[in-house]
Amino acid sequence: MDGMNTATTTAHNNARTADAQTTAAIAVDELVKRYGEHIALDYLTMQVRRGEIYGLLGPNGSGKTTAINCILGLLSYDSGDIRIFGEHMSPTNYALKRRIGVVPQDIAVFNELTVEENITYFCSLYVPERARRAQLVNEAIDFVGLGDYRTYRPRKLSGGLLRRLNIACGIVHQPELIFFDEPTVAVDPQSRNSILEGIQRLNAQGSTVIYTSHYMEEVEQICDRIQIIDHGRQIALGTADELKRMIDVGERISVEAPTLGSDAKLREHVLDSVRALPAVIDVDFADDMLEITCTQGAHNLIDVLQTLRTLDVPLGHVSSHTPTLNDVFLALTGTELRD
């Protein structure tokens, strides 16, 4: 009887895994990649649902780029399984690759070609029919707002417009799955907003998006779920709110208290008193500012201010902040994403 139950459970788990691989946009199962003695990917698993914007984050050397290259069939791996839309990815699965678009961090266009010629060239790699290709090129140009720059060569474009061209070349064939690798690096705020809005429109039109960025506010703004990897392994996965609940930090309170800078004895007494509050994790004083880290609680700010008033500490500007994704990243990896 126990054997039958074990067999039934195993069959159920196998069926569930197979169903997830079939329905997911990307299903990566226990992926291992070694470079000699170095393990770049350590049984990495990833399930990207169709129609979501999936943030993939990791510090330098975490294995993020290696994972993407394996998924795209650009890099071999030692063991594991990769499926895209239920199909095995391989270097020669060209039919599957036509359903994928890649917008790399480095600008990948030809300086000798105009905006329209660049987009047409990249479209021709996927779409042989000339009439269909012309339609797609026009739609891509309109989508990224480069209609007034069709005849411009890349060297004449601003950084933001060049990024838009890079995007147009990667999405012109209207792929079902799109990888965006740092698409807003070194662009002005207006161009950044335009790019992010464009990615959200692509997603609304049905594309599944894999998004990597060093700008946490972007990830939080547009991603449905976020996976953090380090040393080739997943260390966290969830929505932005779910990730924030994984760490102890629930609130950061900043209090301007310039008098503490000139009175060392009072400063130490204040730091000790605030540190003794039940919800306080850490207290620091620098540049006339008290920086107080607390666990989650409804009355943290009130408790801190009451303590300071009891000690007759004159207060200036006061602010309270909930944890950010960067706080999560720092707590889980020991480094900031931009390091």
From TrEMBL:
Answer yes or no on keyword ATP-binding: yes
Xref: Gene3D superfamilies = P-loop containing nucleotide triphosphate hydrolases
Q: Does the keyword Nucleotide-binding apply?
A: yes
Give the UniProt keywords, A-Z: ATP-binding, Nucleotide-binding
Name one molecular function that GO assigns to this entry.
ATP hydrolysis activity
The cross-references to PROSITE patterns, in alphabetical order and at most eight, read:
ABC_TRANSPORTER_2
- Coiled coil regions, renumbered to chain: none
Q: Which residues form the ABC transporter domain?
A: 26-256
Name the domain of life: Bacteria
Identify this protein by name.
ABC transporter ATP-binding protein
